[in-house]
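tl;dr need the bound structure. longer version: we got a ligand (adenosine-5'-diphosphate) that a collaborator sent over and nobodys looked at where it sits. i said id run it. heres the input, straight from their email, havent touched it
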Amino acid sequence: MSFLIIDKVNKVYTGKTNEEIVALQDISLSCEQGEFITIVGSTGCGKTTLLRLIAGLEQPSSGTITIGENAVTGINEEVTLVFQQYSLFPWYNVLDNIGFSLELKGVDKHERIERVQKLISLVGLTGFEKSFPYELSGGMQQRAAIARALAYNPKVLLLDEPFGALDERTRHRLQEEFLAIWEREKKTIILVTHNIDEAVFLGTRIFIMRDRPGKIEEEVLIQLARPRSRQSKEFTDLHLHVRETLENILE
Ligand SMILES: Nc1ncnc2c1ncn2[C@@H]1O[C@H](COP(=O)(O)OP(=O)(O)O)[C@@H](O)[C@H]1O
Ligand SMILES: [Mg+2]
């Protein structure tokens, strides 16, 4: 039995003129603990919807999602979703943003500060504990958001285009840091992106989605050794394959 099982999930929304919008159609996907799944697809193919369902923020119209032994029926502690936009509390500094969930859980102040300091150094924000979000660059805010997600200590981390708003250099650096965190923490990660390079660089498997209705078009196993070289032939071949698949969908 796999750790995370998405079984024949459909999600239908009602549009403004009462029309049916099939955001997801017949999605089945299962993954093992510690896998790094990446999902690519054009805007509107249902990527965010799928993450919201896994996180229990919404319910499927039909089908089931199971994590570990339990069906996902609502928000739960196993899963944390990092949103597309930086979702830090603007009125809290970095320390308090990251420590927020620990405070909610009743972790005492001493231990809280210790754990938060570890996370801050993990994401490379040492020295910025007292900074407020508006004082940080986009990349730093995103690192703080990731540290905050890790503070919840979820088994499954869902990331919705987390590096989308960053310039290429910052994105590459954060991807590397993130891989190191994944290898150390052994989390199960599902990362949504429309950046093919990112999907091939990070994933153990890529799911390519198509839109209208949102469906899985193809699953690609990525067996490239790490650290991966973007210049290697295997990398560029896989990149090309994913790009061609996405282009064929759009035709
Ligand atoms: N709450 C909603 N009500 C109606 N339609 C929605 C809602 N959320 C998403 N959709 C529609 O579902 C489809 C998939 O959206 P989304 O999951 O945001 O795609 P993606 O993240 O891949 O860009 C889109 O057509 C979108 O307009
Ligand atoms: Mg989206």
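gonna send this back to them w/ a short note. The beta strands are 4-14, 20-31, 36-40, 62-67, 70-71, 79-82, 156-160, 188-193, 205-210, 215-221.
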